[in-house]
Amino acid sequence: MQRINSKAGRVGLLRMTLGLLALMALATRTPEALAQVPAAEMAKAPAGASLKDWRYRMDVAPAGDKTTGPWQDFVLPPAVFAAARLDLADPRLIDSEGREIPFDMRIRRPDFRTEPIAGKTFNKSRGGDGSAELTIDLGPDPAEHNEVDVQLPLPRYHRRARLEGSASGQEWRVMVEKDLFHFELGPDRLEDRRLSYSSSRFRYLKVRVEPDRAVDASPLEITSARVLHRVEAPGESITSPGLLRPREPVRVSGVPGSAWTIELGGDRVPCERIECDVADPEFVRNYQIESETGSEDEARFIPVASGVWRRTAGAAPRPLEAAFPEVQARRLRLTVTDASNRPLELRSVAYSAAARQVVFPSSAAGALRLYVGNPRAYATSYDFARGLPAVLTPAPTRRTLGELGANPDYSPAPKPLTERLPWLIHVVLGGVS
């Protein structure tokens, strides 16, 4: 190769080399790599992305005349988790006219949620004894409420508080009286600033906080008080049969044992509990449950739970249960220590996890389709989802899903340039050299 001696020639060669390197970096961004694009970059994707970018779809059966409320729903089956993104940001719900239907995806673990109740504060005052008081008007048709969050300006406090309610503002009834406190010691915090009571629809609420004369150098003042409705969001668990592979003899801490592989029916399937049907009438055995991680070629099992299963003679033959923090896996492995005992006879196994519930408006009548399998899809944020109450009353009408199938309109993203033009890397290396 001829040596380039001029400064301009060397600069030109450097620019060409940097350009080719940049082109290679862009060309090597595969769809899998693009799935890791930051959320801020994904948000720039157009809202009306073509359905050709989604690889799979499932039919959502019509509800027919079973609809009884403003919402409908369905639960994601195991097959979806292998096809969709790990964070479930890519599902889209489309009607027969090609319109996108808003929805809310919920993980149905039991939970407590608080919803703020709008109100107007008035009569904020200080008493001659150093107490503080305010009244809240929730309007002529107040929503149900059961908690008031009281904010005090002091960095540390322990005060007696009383909450009264009234329908007219004339006659008052004491609803709750308790101590409020807030203390901090380094990174630790101990506080209780909420007044909780039985569900009520009183229009007026009056909060009074008593002073502590040994501490308060000036009259106390209530910074604010928020009225809340705290509700328990019930959970929903989905139980599915697992495929129990034949027993394998193993050694557990040097003694005989048994191991079974449990197929969950898909990849990255959520699981937080298993139930095993055991035929033996009496036993006491140590067990361990492991979750598979890594690719199928480089799979390894990580322990997630262990304990002791026991059944006494004459006891009802109930399934044996084991619970653990939720994992997303393709397979589990159950290991039982047998020692000098005959191996247990496992007849079947089932696994459970919190349901992934998709809720959408009943106005989306007729046949729908769920599309999944787009690694570049941005996470949705529908107004419908943000305005949906924590507890849905009445319960949504449940619809069923068909089998997961290929999207006939799917058009795969082009391969990286380095795969389409493998000689490009040799050109770049030659230019650098």
What does this structure look like?
The chain has 433 residues and is mainly β. The chain has helices at residues 7-27, 31-34, 39-42, 78-83, 383-386, 417-420, 424-432, and strands spanning 56-60, 71-75, 92-95, 104-107, 111-117, 120-126, 132-137, 145-151, 157-166, 173-185, 188-192, 194-200, 204-209, 224-233, 237-244, 248-252, 255-263, 269-278, 283-293, 300-311, 320-329, 331-337, 346-354, 356-361, 368-372, 397-398, 405-406. Strands 15, 16, 17, 18, 19, 20, 21, 22 and 23 form a 9-stranded antiparallel sheet that branches. Strands 6-7-13-9-10-11 form a 6-stranded antiparallel sheet, with no helix packed on it. Strand 9 (157-166) and strand 10 (173-185) form a beta hairpin. Helix 1 (7-27) packs antiparallel against helix 7 (424-432). The longest helix is centred in the first third of the chain and has 21 residues, at 7-27. The model is unreliable at 26-48 (pLDDT under 50).
